Structure formats: structure tokens, C-alpha cells
Amino acid sequence: MNEIIIKILAGAFGHVAASIIHEGVKKVLEKDPFEKAFKESVEKVEKKYDKDLFFVFGLLQKPEAFVGREIIDKGTFCEILSEEGVIEYVASELYDEISKKFNEIIKETRKKNEYAFRCYVTEELEKQGLTLGVIEDGIRILTEITIPRIETILEKEKSKDAEFFRSWGPEWIDFEKGFVVERPEVNEILKKFENNNLIVIKGNPASGKSVILRNVGYKLANQGTDVYVIELKHTTPGIEEVLKLKKGYLFIDDAHLDFGFVDKIRQMLSNHVKVLASTRDINEDSVQVSHLKLYEYIRDAILIKSVDAREEIIENFLKIEKQGETMSGKIKEKLSKESLWVLAWQLRAYKETGDVCRDAVCREVENYLEKLKEQGIENAEDIFLILSVFYKYEIPVRRKFVEKLVCGSKKDIEKLIKIREINETKEKGWKYLGLHHSEMAEVYLNFFQNLEFEGVGEGIKKEIEEETGKDWFEGLFHLYVGEFPEEWEYMFYKYPKIIKNLMQEEKIFNKINENILKTGPENHVDAIFYLSHNSPEFRLNFDEDSRKRLIKIVSQTKPENYPDTIDWVTILNNVDAERILEFDEGSKRKLTENISQTTPENHFDTGKWIFTLREVNPELALNFDEDSKRRLSKSMAQTKPENHKYTGGLIYSLKNIDPNFTLEFDENSKIRLRNSISQTKPENYEGTAVLIFALRDVDSELTRGIIRNSLPKSFIEYVRSREIDGYFFEDLNWIIPDLPEFNGWLLENI
Asked: Which of 53, 204, 698, 749 could form a disulfide bond with 46, CB atoms 3.0-4.6 angstroms apart?
């Protein structure tokens, strides 16, 4: 075990330093606390996620599992545990917990006898030609918070001159000098924080959410409070980085870009950290959020409207930029009520020309691009043209694509990033470029699409149109997906219509189809569902490897996972050109083994699962062995009155896929089943009738005994007095046979 512990320590301190630290701790504390700390970490995470992780402890007692690995860093740790079936985020949290406990041990050691610990470690490190700084740096890495503070976001130490508008948002000095209008929502949020740990603000694009978030942060920071900021349009930090926060405030801008991330950290974060999140006012029909614990906060969020700040912004602008002059009502009426970004550009145009019409704003954009050229950024026009097309839909673009399309743009891109006119982010090893806001993209697009300025970007527009045969706007998407087909799904979520159009072209379709198969169709279900729903003729050409992988996943699915798998198997079956999955004998055995592990809570889903299997292969027949039948009989016997109709439905499914299927109840199971049926209540009578009707085909003797001895009198009267209503079985209409026969059989036998 010691060898593994040293390798984990080495992930932070390096291999040589790790063994020295380990020995130093043992000498000072006169014990080895690391193994106990490891066990406690496993138990804590195990309890939190209700998952059996004890095998992890056993795994790490086997050095052979880590042969050739001198260092077990977080990536290695998660990789090894993932191979053993541990979900990645659970493995990640376990590593964080172990690191935290190991760090606490080192702190405890230093606290007990700093001098002895340092002397021993220093002496040993010197022998190896190292310094104590190696350890100090390692401890700092484990605990240092890398999420930027509000002071960094607002450039507190850098910005010198206040400005009324900045494309990347206001800075510290702009708040300090009164260039930013403080909206009433700022104090409303501060007041709410007195009794709430999580506050959400929502609104349309460019309604002022980010400025409000910065304003609240500015005020809190001025009071000496720690405020950390995550801007999801720029980066998504690792969960382990967020969990380093133990107090203060965490602000999350553009939460709609990754609700899952926000939901997860809200559940895991310390209660001493208060969270403010801003999000678009989403359409719940198109964005699934009801399953999130964050949902109620999104639903009840503070609504931000741009029109609420419009008048004050105009007055503040006139006071600062126009020395308090008045603006005519005619011009003021033309100013945007919906977008504060458009309003900002209109006011810039007004400052220079006294006009706010569309052409005046376009001239201001033209002047701005000319100024960038004067600064030596020759290709600014073409770069902004490309980025504005994509960022209208908040789609960042691979830098490589822009550099290839705009010759000689590499240095210009660097300059634009440096002066903060565009953003650069890194994801999965790729560099991406984007603008600061989708509404800014709209302003630029209005300029590039304005016929009065059609000569702007003429060269690149012509090049795109000649290469694609499309107009330059749509042609850009064709070029991008053609070169980087793996980007199709992200684009789909942002702009589904364009992906649907792209898929009409054979060349693009083949590339997307290839990417889907390469990464696994089951990982693209939502997008595939949309495409198939809107284009009934949409089909995918699955290759042999994809089919084998799907069959393996399907055959290994456990009952508790049937609902999710049913959804994507059904969707993929609908778009499969051949529409059939062929299960070999090994897969069939695995299917029957998993089906037989169902519990009463899963009976409905298991019945539907079997029906789904027959849909993907109408000829599929399973053969349940004696052990499987015994397990299923035991599961059926545990059913409760409220589950009777689903248990009955499952029996029908089993008979459908295995014509020779029977149940084999032992005496205890028979007693339990009779008791369950005898305890049925009026609200469950029709479900109980389904169960009895199904049982007659798998154990007729037991069924006759139940009819004679176990049915409540009120149940018998109920069946005699009325027919079983078909509506009750709408959720089982894919299983239950002829209802009139059903009703007649009951009346005849009771």
C-alpha cells in the first residue's frame, strides 16, 4: 500500500520528494496516517454517492495494477478507476478527497514539529540535489484557488481611464468614476444574499445581466469580500478547482451554456460560498432543465430587462460624453429598447455624427475597423466577418480555420486578442476564437450585410461563394463542417436549421455520418432525434463496428438503466438504414441474465425494454434458463398492488419474446404473491386484474388458487359490476391483448 500512496503523493510533489515526505511524516507523527486517510476518503465518497467503492481500496493494494507508473496524478487515477467501472466524476472527487486528506496530514506534521520535519526533509532533499521549495510549491498547488477574482476580471490594477463603453464589459475604474449606471437589481441581489445562498438572474441577450453581475461583485469587493468569477463563454474550470472555495462568493456568468456544470457545483459546494448565476431567459420546451436541482431557482429568477436601464444609460451618456446636452425625442425613440449592445453602438454613432440610424451605426463600425487597420491589424475586417457569422449563435470557431481562410492573419489575431477585441479559449487541445457577445456579432453582421457597404470583405465573401456555391453566410458553415465534421453537434445545439441544411449535401452528410459512427451514435441521441423528427427520411449508415458496439451496450444494460437506453435505442433504430440489430448467442445470454435481475420498481421499464428489443429485431427470441426463471419468479412475488399492472405487463412481454416462458414460484413466493393480491385496493383493482390475467399463462394452477382463495370480495363485485376500462391500460397498449377477451375471462372464472 505504501508504494501506491507514494505514487499518489508524487502526483503533486514529484516521485523523489514524495517518498521523502512520506518518511518525514512517519518520523514526526510516529505513525503512518496515510493508509487510514485513504480508507476514510473512500468511505466518504462511497457514502455520498451510495456506491460500493471498497474494491478501490483492494485495487490500490495491488502494485501490479500500476506497473510502469511512477506517478499517479489525477488523470491516471481516474483512468484506472474508470476501467474498473467507476464513473469519472466520482473518481475525480475521490482523488480530490484523497489529496485534501494527504495535504491535511502534511499540515498536521508541520504544526506538530515544523523544525524536525523541515530538517529531515531538507537534509534528504539536499542529498537528491533538490530544495524544500519543491514541497512548498506542491502544497500550494493542492490548495491555491485558480478561479479569477472580480478584481482580475475588472482589471483593477491595470485600467487607468474610465470609458463609457468597452466591448468586453466595464472595468473597475468605470464603476469607480460613475460611468456605469447602477441598476436597482444590484441592491436587490445584495439584500437577497442575506438569506439566500443561491441567486439567479435571467434575461434576454444584451439585457445587462453581465454588467449587473460585475456591479454586485465590485460592491462586495469594495467591502473586502472575496468574489470569484467563472465566465462560461471563456472557460469551464474543473470541479476540483471550484471545490477549493470554502467561503466568499462565486459568480457564474452565462450559466445557460452549461446548466449541468452549474447544477453539479451548487450541490457539491460549501454552504459558506454564496452563488450568483446569470442566464438567458430560456425556453423550457427546447432546453431541458426541469430535472435539475437548479430548476426552481431558474424558474423564480430575478428578471432583467434592457428597457429598465435604457433611460438612465442615455442620461448618463449625455451627462458624461455630451456635457449634459439634451437629445431630441425623435432620435431617442430610435434607440434600441431590446439590446444594450445595439444601444451602445447607437450612442457611439450619435457622439460622432448626431444620428442613430442603421447606416450611421454601420459607418461607426466602419470607422472602428479602419482604426484597427491603422494600428497595423490589416485583416481585422475579414476576421470579424467570420467570427460574427458564427458568434451570432454563440459558436466559437477553431483558430486554425480562421488562419487558413484569412491568409496572413496569425499576427492580427494575436493583436486582437491582446487588445481584448476577441476571445481565445482552449478546448480538447484546440484553440477557439469568439466575440464577447452574440449581440455584438449582430452589430457587425448588420454592417457586413448592409448593401451600402457591400465592398467590405468583398474578397473573402467571393472566395467563400465560389468554393461552396452558396451565399457567403451559409457557405461559411459548409466550409467549417466540411473541414471539422466533429464540430457538427455543438453547432446543431446552437443553430439546428443550418445542420439540417448541411445534411442534405452528400459530401457533408458522409463526413458527419462518419463522425457519429466514430464517436458512438449513442452519444449523439438528442441531435439525431431532432434531425429525424424534422426530416422523416433521415437515415444513418451504421458500419459493422458500430453495430457490434451498440449490441454490446444493449446486451449489458442493467434494469435500472433501461429507461435511458430505451430512448436512444428507439431513436437509433428509427434512423438505421437497415433497422435491425442481430444478437449472437452470447449477447442473448447477457440479455436474459440482466432482465432476470429486475425488481418490482423496474417491472414497467423491463416490459417496455423487451418490447423495444423486438422492435430492433422482430425475429429476436430469448430462452430463459431455470436460474433466470427462479429470479424472475422471486421478483414477481415481491410486487405490490400499485405495481400489479406493470408486473402483469412484464409477464406478457416475457411470453412474447420466449413462447415457452413459465414462472417457477417456490412456496414462500406463492405466499407473498397471494398476500400481495389479497391486499389490493380499489384504486389498484384493474392492475390486479391484468396481473391475474397474465399469470394464467405462466402458472395456471397458482392462478386458479388465487381466484378461489385470495381475491377480496370487493374486487369480485367490482369485476362483476363493470367492464374493465381500456383507458386504464393506455401505457400498456403495446402489451395487453384483446381487452374484451380479458373481461370475459375474468367474469367466467370469478
From this structure: 53
Burial of residue 347, with CB atoms counted within 10 A of its CB: 0-12 exposed, 13-18 middle, 19 or more buried: buried
Q: Answer yes or no: are the C-beta atoms of 413 and 402 closer than 8 Å.
A: yes
The Cα–Cα gap between 600 and 637 comes to 9
Vertex 367: Cα angle to 363 and 369 (nearest 5): 115
* Local structure of 523: helix, strand or coil: helix
pLDDT, position 131: 54
Looking only at the bridges linking them, the beta strands covering 248-253 and 273-280 are parallel
pLDDT tens digits, 518-569: 888 888 887 888 777 777 777 888 888 888 888 888 999 999 999 889 888 8
Q: Which residues pair with 121 in a beta bridge?
A: none
CB neighbour list of residue 456: distance below 8 Å, 6 or more residues apart: 366, 369, 381, 385, 447, 448
Q: Is residue 631 located within the same domain as residue 689? A: yes
Same domain? 336 vs 381: no
Q: Is the dihedral of CA 198, 201, 205, 206 positive or negative?
A: negative
The answer to whether residues 212 and 304 touch, using CB atoms and an 8 Å cutoff, is: yes
Which residue is associated with the grid cell 537528491? 128
Strand, helix or coil for residue 434:
strand
DSSP 436: S
Residue type, 559: P
Q: And the C-alpha cell for 280? A: 438567458
C-alpha cell at 368: 472602428
Distance CA 460, CA 462 (A): 5
Q: Classify burial at 46, counting beta carbons within 10 Å of its beta carbon; exposed 0-12, middle 13-18, buried 19 or more.
A: middle
Residue 278, beta-bridge partner list: 201
Residue 262: name the closest of 315, 301, 216, 320 by CA: 301
- How many residues are listed for the chain in this entry? 750
Assigned domain for 619 exists: yes
Q: Are residues 156 and 288 in the same domain?
A: yes
- Whether 136 and 224 share a structural domain: no
Instruction: For residue 116, name the pLDDT band (cuts at 50, 70, 90).
Output: confident
Tell me, yes or no, whether 299 and 163 share the same domain: yes
In total, how many domains does the chain have? 5
Helix, strand or coil for residue 423?
Answer: strand
Q: Say if residue 446 is in the same domain as residue 476.
A: yes
Burial of residue 408 (number of CB atoms within 10 Å: 0-12, 13-18, 19+): exposed
Query: Which SS3 state, helix, strand or coil, does residue 408 take?
Result: coil
Compute the average pLDDT of residues 341-351: 88
What number of H helices and E strands is found in the chain?
39, 8
Same domain, 172 and 76: no
Residue 739 lies in a domain: yes
| Domain membership of residue 131 as a residue range | 2-143
On whether residue 658 sits in a domain, the answer given is yes
Question: Which of the listed residues 479, 496, 513 is the one where a domain comes to its end?
Answer: 496
Could you tell me if residue 577 is inside a domain? no
DSSP label of 149: B
In this prediction, residues 615-628 reach a mean pLDDT of 91
Domain closes at, from 143, 159, 189: 143
Calpha distance 452→470 (Å, rounded): 21
3-class DSSP state for residue 455?
coil
Bridge partners (DSSP) listed for residue 249: 227, 274
- Please provide the average confidence, as pLDDT, over all residues in the chain: 82
292-321 burial code (b ≥16 CB/10 A, e <16): bebeebbeebbebebeebbeebbebbbeeb
Whether residues 346 and 428 fall in one domain: no
Q: What digits encode the pLDDT tens for the residues 326-339?
A: 888 888 888 888 88
Cβ atoms of 425 and 234 closer than 8 Å: yes
What is the C-alpha to C-alpha distance for residues 608 and 32, in angstroms, rounded to an integer?
A: 54
Specify the 3-state DSSP secondary structure of 287.
Answer: coil
Residues 620 and 614: beta-carbon distance below 8 Å: yes
CA distance 566 to 573: 10
**3-state DSSP call for residue 645?**
helix
pLDDT, residue 84, reads 64
